[in-house]
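Hey, quick one: can you model this chain's 3D structure?
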Amino acid sequence: MADQIYPTFFIGLGGTGGKTVNRIARKFKTNWNYETLRNSVAFFTFDTDRGDLEGFSDIPKENRFLLHIPRKKEFVDRVRGAGYLDPDPFYTSWMHPDYGFHIEGGKGAGQIRIESRLTFTYRIEHPDLQLGHRDILRAFQDAIGRALDPDNNATRRQPAYFQIFCFGSIAGGTGSGSFLPLAYTLQHLLQERGWETITSLCLFDPEVFEPEVQNALKKDIHANGYAALMETDHFMRLSAEGGHHSLPKKIRFHTRKAWPRLVDRAPATIVYLCGIPKHFSMEKIASMINAVADASYFQVFSPLLGLQEAESVNFVRHQLGLVQQVFSAHYGAFGCCLLHVPDEDILLYCGLRFAETA
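Sure thing. Here's the predicted structure for all 358 residues.
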């Protein structure tokens, strides 16, 4: 591991994303260079299920956020214009008028994307410090401040890239509904400081969860996945320069009332869609979560990332030429090969052989 790295956030959304980031955080704590790099790296997790959050013990408690709206029914009625109130277009522009939101919070999003989209947006706009909820924006700003502190010699400052690794499932409601507002929130905060975000979205495909999902719910997780992928494809087209005349230049999207209502940049630099090939079997979802977490850890804390950056530029240029700059796609394996040298075992063996022949 180098003595300098780009400032990096690992963010988990929902149970799957939280487990992935929790494993990465656990590995990072045991690294020999942890004390040097600890202020340049931060770990966060967001969930609509209170029970999931309590299990992510390797992520700092102050960086574990419950996506929850106190007195939710009153809030939803208010923004929809109940009684003599005027509707709030900040919310009603994307809230379906006939959808009935879950009133009881803290038990998950129920495979419904709009539930976590509403709660994440609410938590950004209303810190609710008086209710004991930590301000999400303040938590991000504090971690950014530690990473970019002039006295932090572990942060690589040229070029001014800030790495964001976001993990979540597009099968459940929490991850599929909140990864877009999260990506644009961090993009806005870092642009204000003059830093470019290099965001990697790592999304788990609904098929990964089929073996552990009841038959009655399978159509729900696939509907979530389809909607999330369509939305992702739409926003990722903002990354194409020139090309097809139908490509959008700006898209209406906002996570705070005080921020611009249009975005002109894609939410991510690259999107990893993690699924299981038909010819490949995996007994438990945990095995895949561990594989993705371990590969992501080595991607950041090894020379792998620099090699990938050099190759990806040429690959994207090639792909854009093939598809007339509408989109690019790269199908392949997510993971890494590791040569593990058992140095302690070799040392012990040599010592025993030396003792035997002495």
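One thing worth noting: The chain has one domain: 8-69+105-357.
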